[in-house]
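Repro:
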Amino acid sequence: MYPLPTPPANRVIEARQGVEYLQIGKDSIESFTNFVFNHFVKRIGKRQQWRPSEADYRTMLSEEQSLATTGFFIAARIPGGRIVGAMRAAQWSPDMRLATEKIFHIDPAVIAHQRGVPAESVWHVSQMCVDTEFLVAQNYSWRVGIEIMRTIVKHLFRAVAPHNGRIALLESDDQINAYLNRFLQIETTPLGSTRDYIGQTQVAIIDLDIHYGLPYIQAKIGSRILR
């Protein structure tokens, strides 16, 4: 259902309550990244006074485009074509050097060894955001933002499960961790210290195995449906 490498063009994977959910294609990774970056500027800039440069955007875009062969990009859009939610997961490989490795000096292969799972079962998860403020301005309930994020997470977890996804690493902070736990029932464990990256950021780990069975996810790994 979720092709890998990333398909050339967007694919609608679900539509309900006036929202379309997409697997983003290669030709839309730039617009996907532009939405995420601008939302981060608004959200984290307001909360932590993060003021990125054009070079920061170009670095993010280059990294996201480099993940087209190993990553799933999921987005939500409303009538008119505006993206309102996003998230991405990319399968780790020895030649991958993202912020987890470069900024936080965490080796995913070491984490995998400590957890007793194959290194290729580690996935980098990032770009998680939903523009609830915009949705409310368009007369949507604020709860729609939570439903959008849950649906994006559902598709992302279902996409990585058949590829033996066991661990997710993400750049996070206390507010994001609290949101994941409260609204998505996802438990995170911080790794290492907080650094100045996109605001004040830390790396967190998610044990995917224990979340595939969540009622709103019901991911299939191999021939088993985890409940």
